[in-house]
């Protein structure tokens, strides 16, 4: 998608088009357009510019897209930028609260053997066209960085260190992104595949 500014009408039309490529292009456009707004919010609370900006930005874009596609967002009552600002602010506040609550809880050390389901079971289940379509659809709803991290780690069995090198990001940031993106994917898949998750 070009760098031209899009109106709220354009954004709504693209996100509700049902065309996965158009939805993905508009999602990437929104990630670029609203990044500065999220950076400002994170700076205002002395947050982590690497971790918080990415997590808040992606989670808020997912929520905005869902609200637009499901008709929750009402264009006659607010601009999309204003609506996104509120979503991002609430997302950041929730993230900071959760961090405050869990700051004394040790981070669980996941190993390479920790998977959504056993690899043999996954291979069998993914032979089903319906399951493949649902998983692919859920992955497509995530931002490109999330998709790349999850595909590399969970499907291609790459190590966190290899992913860190490939993406040019710190190892800690990739681990955090994997955890956050997996939470998003689990939410998207939970209704259909409750028995996949521990």
Describe the structure.
- By secondary structure, this protein is mainly α.
- It folds into two domains: 8-102, RNA polymerase sigma factor, region 2, helix turn helix motif (Rna Polymerase Sigma Factor, Chain: A, Orthogonal Bundle); 119-196, Arc Repressor Mutant, subunit A, CATH 1.10.10.10.
- It has helices at 8-15, 20-44, 51-69, 80-102, 119-125, 129-140, 144-155, 160-167, 171-189.
- Helix 2 packs across helix 3, helix 2 crosses helix 4 (80-102) and helix 3 packs parallel to helix 9 (171-189).
- The longest helix has 25 residues, at 20-44.
- Mean pLDDT is 78; it is low at 102-123.
Quick summary:
The protein has 198 residues and is mostly helical.
Mean pLDDT: 78
Give the second-level CATH assignment, the architecture of the largest domain: Orthogonal Bundle
Q: Write down the CATH topology of the largest domain.
A: Rna Polymerase Sigma Factor, Chain: A
Number of helical segments? 9
Order of helices and strands: HHHHHHHHH
**The CATH homologous superfamily of the largest domain:** RNA polymerase sigma factor, region 2, helix turn helix motif
Class computed from helices, strands and strand pairing:
mainly alpha
Cα shape: globular
How many distinct beta strands?
0
Q: Spans of 5+ residues with little confidence (pLDDT < 50)? A: 102-123
Q: How is the biggest beta sheet arranged?
A: none
Q: N- to C-terminal separation? A: 39 Å
State the share of residues found in helices, binned by percent.
Answer: 55-70%
Features:
2 domains, single chain, Rna Polymerase Sigma Factor, Chain: A, mainly alpha, Arc Repressor Mutant, subunit A, 198 residues
């Amino acid at each position: 998608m070009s760098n031209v500014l899009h109106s709220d009408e354009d954004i709504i039309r693209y996100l509700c088009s049902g065309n996965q490529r158009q939805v993905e292009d508009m999602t990437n456009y929104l990630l670029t357009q609203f990044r500065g707004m999220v950076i400002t919010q994170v700076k205002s609370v002395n947050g982590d510019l690497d971790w918080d900006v990415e997590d808040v930005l992606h989670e808020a874009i997912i929520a905005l897209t869902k609200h637009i596609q499901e008709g929750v967002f009402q264009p006659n009552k607010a601009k999309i930028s204003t609506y996104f600002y509120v979503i991002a602010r609430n997302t950041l506040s929730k993230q900071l609260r959760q961090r405050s609550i869990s700051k004394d809880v040790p981070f669980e050390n996941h190993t390479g053997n920790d998977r959504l389901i056993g690899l043999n079971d996954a291979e069998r289940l993914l032979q089903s066209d319906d399951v493949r379509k649902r998983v692919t659809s859920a992955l497509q709803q995530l931002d490109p960085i999330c998709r790349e991290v999850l595909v590399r780690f969970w499907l291609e069995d790459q190590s966190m260190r290899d992913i860190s090198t490939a993406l040019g990001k710190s190892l800690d940031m990739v681990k955090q992104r994997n955890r956050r993106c997996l939470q998003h994917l689990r939410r998207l898949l939970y209704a259909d595949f409750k028995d996949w998750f521990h």
